[in-house]
């Protein structure tokens, strides 16, 4: 199985690129593997139009622009490369938000005079590292899906650019970046329990929306780096390059080349290539565990028995007494005991080996929303810090206490 992006996302603060710098377009890392082709028949979803790859010509960038504009309507803007150069100061590295296997993302600002009907706002401009037809299809998939899908928990695509060999996407700017950065980067303050729950609920709403259509959309790459956060920590799903239309009629699954990210992909999908909405549910369960423990799905820097989050955490999830030993120590006991127990059990259901045993996203969302009422903080219930007796059994208690002290 290949990862969707081998290159870790990282922010930049380097000096500004000059207008003559050929690396702006020419020398991006080409580490992203090819992805399987999305379904050629994009079935109608609630409140948006039918559009397929066959509707969009591959003959020239001018023809593609005409086809997209005709199919997607006036809500999506067709930008010129010169316009996007201008709002990002020629893709200046001082405006670089980050870099991944797909290319780079720069911050820009659109004023009220930029385009008629487009409000003044900051934007994120993704400059894709195109490599052959597959790279073009990844760009096209994002335009087709996000150009038609509109939901508060999906990142809004404002427009696109298809000029010569360049492929760019323009999104609403998400000021708090990715969930991955907040959970795993040392520069970030620890997310509060209520914020983690809010993020989980928002992400669940996004997936539930995708799955709710007559022909559901399977996201296929649900992970912390694809969950972006706005100023009030509302979660929005981004990057639809791997998204695929689900099975139709009597079909139970779609069969496709296995793509995704290590640690998040459902086992039956990895072994057979059979993809269903329950594949997304499995990935959601992994992210729930990351929110609960503060650990990555896969972490090669840890000991052998702790590198795979599911393998390490699973024995603790069905026991409220043992669960506290794997709760993120940066929470320092500021989490709901009942809420954590329910999330542990919910995650356990989501990562079930049998897809039929996994709940559907509406049921998951209902469970998560009910947890917002709980105020029984572990630190006031005598359940934090975990008892020293746990050290001999699991070896995590000492480390947890040390980290908790550092966060006080």
From TrEMBL:
Protein residues bound to ATP: 126
Cited CDD domains: STKc_IRAK
Keywords per UniProt: ATP-binding, Cell membrane, Kinase, Membrane, Nucleotide-binding, Serine/threonine-protein kinase, Transferase
Name of the featured protein: Protein kinase domain-containing protein
Segments forming domain Protein kinase: 91-371
Biased amino acid composition, Polar residues: 395-408
UniProt keyword annotation of Cell cycle present: no
Pfam families the UniProt entry points to: PK_Tyr_Ser-Thr (PF07714)
Top-level taxon in the UniProt lineage: Eukaryota
Residue numbers spanned by region Disordered: 384-408
